[in-house]
TrEMBL record:
<dbReference type="Pfam" id="PF00080">
    <property type="entry name" value="Sod_Cu"/>
</dbReference>
<keyword id="KW-0560">Oxidoreductase</keyword>
<keyword id="KW-0186">Copper</keyword>
<dbReference type="GO" id="GO:0005507">
    <property type="term" value="F:copper ion binding"/>
</dbReference>
<protein>
    <recommendedName>
        <fullName>Superoxide dismutase [Cu-Zn]</fullName>
        <ecNumber>1.15.1.1</ecNumber>
    </recommendedName>
</protein>
<feature type="domain" description="Superoxide dismutase copper/zinc binding">
    <location>
        <begin position="70"/>
        <end position="219"/>
    </location>
</feature>
<dbReference type="GO" id="GO:0004784">
    <property type="term" value="F:superoxide dismutase activity"/>
</dbReference>
<comment type="similarity">
    <text>Belongs to the Cu-Zn superoxide dismutase family.</text>
</comment>
<keyword id="KW-0479">Metal-binding</keyword>
<dbReference type="InterPro" id="IPR036423">
    <property type="entry name" value="SOD-like_Cu/Zn_dom_sf"/>
</dbReference>
<dbReference type="InterPro" id="IPR024134">
    <property type="entry name" value="SOD_Cu/Zn_/chaperone"/>
</dbReference>
<dbReference type="InterPro" id="IPR001424">
    <property type="entry name" value="SOD_Cu_Zn_dom"/>
</dbReference>
<keyword id="KW-0862">Zinc</keyword>
<comment type="function">
    <text>Destroys radicals which are normally produced within the cells and which are toxic to biological systems. May play a role in favoring mycobacterial survival in phagocytes.</text>
</comment>
<dbReference type="InterPro" id="IPR018152">
    <property type="entry name" value="SOD_Cu/Zn_BS"/>
</dbReference>
<feature type="signal peptide">
    <location>
        <begin position="1"/>
        <end position="24"/>
    </location>
</feature>
<keyword id="KW-0732">Signal</keyword>
Amino acid sequence: MPRTTRFALAAGLALGLAAAAAPAVPGLSAGMAAASAVQARPSESASESASESAGQSATAVIKNTAGRVLGTVRVERYDAKKSRVSVSVRGLTPGFHGFHVHANGVCDARSVDRATGSAFTSAGSHLGPGEHGDGAGDMPPLLVAADGTASASFVTDRFTLEQLGDANGSAFVVHAGPDNFAHIPDRYFHRPDATGATGPDAATRKTGDAGARIGCGIVKVRA
Ligand SMILES: [Cu+2]
C-alpha cells in the first residue's frame, strides 16, 4: 500500500472515530484513535469513515403537558450505522413507560387526540418505516424507579441522526404505560377488525398499548 494511501486511511478512520472516542477517553491521541479504530471496527471501509460528518449529535428536552421539564435525551453517532441514545428523566410514576421516536418535531400539549384523550398528537405517529415492534422509532422502554427517575443508555441501528433531523424533524415521546411492542400471541382473542380476530389488533400494532403521551421533546440535531 503506498504511503499516502495509508495516511489517508488512518486520517479517515481517526476522523470517523473522533466524536465517539473523544468524550469517553479524552486523553486518546489521534494516532492511538486510528489504531484502535482498526481493531474495533475492522469491517468499516475508509471511504465510509471519510464520508461521515464527525461530531454530529442530537438533543431533546422532554417536557410534560404542563411544560415542566422531565429530562433530556442525547443521541450520538456510535458508528456508521448506529446511534447511542442516553436518556435521563424524573418525576414519572414508577414502572415501565413506553419510549419512542415520533415522526414530527412538534410537541404541542394542546393537540389532544379525540379518540384517546392523549396530548402531543402533534408529534405524529412513530418514526418509520416498520410497524410497531419492528419500527425505526421503537426503543427500549424506560424503567422508572420508586423515586420517579429513570436513566438509560443504549445503542440502536433502527434510526440515524440524519433521519431524526429530516424535513419534518422528530420528537422523543414518553408514554403513561408499558409498551408491549405489539407482541400479542395469537391465542389472545379480540373483537374482530381488519386484522382478524386474534393476536394484536390495529391499535396495539400502532402504539403497543403504551397509553397517553405524557412527555415530549423536540429533537435538535447539531452538525
Ligand atoms: Cu409513542
